[in-house]
Amino acid sequence: MDPLELAEIGKTGLKVSRLGVGGVAIGRTSTAEESDETLKRCVELGVRYFDTAPVYGGGVSEKRYGEVLSAIPVRVSPYPPRSAVCWRRRPPRRWAP
After folding, report:
1. How many independent structural domains does the chain possess?
2. Is 56 a catalytic residue?
């Protein structure tokens, strides 16, 4: 299998795979074993972009990513972190005409 195509992020010199993996199901609808196997297989296939956030699975997603990716021996991490911030939105204000 050909490796996934990499793309540079701006002018940082940091390259990530054009295909990424989202972690919203990790800790919600998948078991730890399923999540770990999925993440390991993604790394084997060349994925180098992983999306997670503290709200995914109540923080379980970030923990699973950290444990799985840190167990892979590399000199320099090819897995740049990507996280999201979530906040509550207030209803839009209604302006009188």
Report:
1. 1
2. yes
